[in-house]
User: Fold this.
Amino acid sequence: MNKPIDYQNPPVASTASGKMRLGEFMVDQGLITRNQLGEALKRQSQVGEHIGSILLELGHVTIEELLGILRSQFGVPAINLFDQEVEPQVTGLIPSDQIREKQVLPIAIQGNRLILAMVNPKDLTTVSELEFRLGKKIDPVVVPSFMMDTACEMMTNGSMKRLSGKELEQQCNYGREGDKTGTRLVALLKKAVGVKASDLILTAGAPPSLRIVNNLKRLAAPPLTPADCEAYAREMMPDKTWHTYLDHNDVDFSVTFPEIGRFRVNAYRQRNSAALAVRPVIEAIPSASELNIPPWLMDYALKPSGLIVVSGPAGHGKSTTLYAMVDMINNHKRSNIISLEDPVEFLHKHKKSNISQREVGVDTPSFYSGLKSVLRQAPDVIVVGEMRDKESFEIALQASYTGHLVITTMHAGNATVAIENTIQMFEPHKQTLIRMMLADAMIVSVAQRLVPLKDRSSRVLAVERLVNSYRVKNLIREGKTHQIRSQMQQGTEDFASIDIELAGLHKDGRITMEDGMILANDKHHYRELTESARPARDTRS
Assistant:
């Protein structure tokens, strides 16, 4: 039950000393020492959080002391969100994007008055704007910034429809759940999943960090030590993986934590200490429409044979697109699918197709070794998580050339560069043959980017399309792949550049001009497209 608060009469009024900075005010009140403030200010320069939240994380003040100081500083009641239980009809008074943007949260309705939690209750502009919009008198109350940040994340990402103080406290305790490595790691992983972070980064000298909608956010926690990172790495790895890591200083693996989820992990060494990049894996593969994958790409995934290449930078969803295509085949065709992955991320179930997922380093020594024997495993579809060397690509190309469907990913800037990079893998005397095989076998080459939505709530997929039409085949055979972009710049049936797709998303009001510009291939062309009439986009189903 919520603790009763006299919203109309705060227990402590603001004073002249309330004009001091919060840290200085705490020193003045004898709650912290000058040295403790200096330590917190240094941490603040690293993580960018409010000073009160950092002092709490460091253990220099309690929540009750912080609430008392905030109450004195702002002259309004200070409340502990951990004690609150607020129903959706109250929190729903303000749209989720406004909750995140303005850092406010409705707490209670008392007649025609709305009790509004704020980090800065002196923000009279926001108060006046919401009073006008809602038709209610607003009584602001102050809350610590770390509580508000976590509550806003949970309310706006859909993990919490109502304000549950207990759930909020569990999320906020990621850095204060005791000294056991396993407990702290579980709390960090829960935090990453709860805020829908694409990555959790653990490296010595910096606090645990989350990548959220392309931005890296440091958590308000102490910087990790080399011993912390080593302990986290050991906690996540089985013995065999740990020994591989010690031998090679770099290892990829996947791990499942019950009741949290599955994670893809790269452990590496930097400055002679351990570091981890941890990526949450969605257990249920989203549909093509949920991922904004164009229907034409899924149609190509149902072809009986040929080569499909998905390229793009790291962290832009290539693996997710690949798995979505595999799931489409699994749902619609009776095929034998063999995949080679490093590591296995999504776990496919047998539906219409049979699926064998082989993990590099566990089920086969390497991609090349797995591909050498794959044709003896009676595959209809061969899925290669990432094409890394010419030997592997030559086998995959031969397989696609001889009646198998091969789907793979590559690191390449765009769809035409992916083709040229493939050819350049080989010795000059082999390149003509590879061009001929690639021209005959390729179905489509796509390059993709994940772009932040305008409201920063998520990211949307933009896909460059290069279909292997008769015209494209000839350009590949003749070594004129570079001419595709110049000859088809405005978009054709067989080619639509990433610039056209980004401009279309901007014209649709889904992304900002600036975010599109960052990811555009030809920035001048992108600017022209966004300033002209809406470009034609392929909507074939």
Remarks:
- The chain is about 40% helix and 20% strand.
- The first strand starts at residue 85 and ends at 86.
- Confidence is low (pLDDT under 50) at residues 1-18, 174-179.
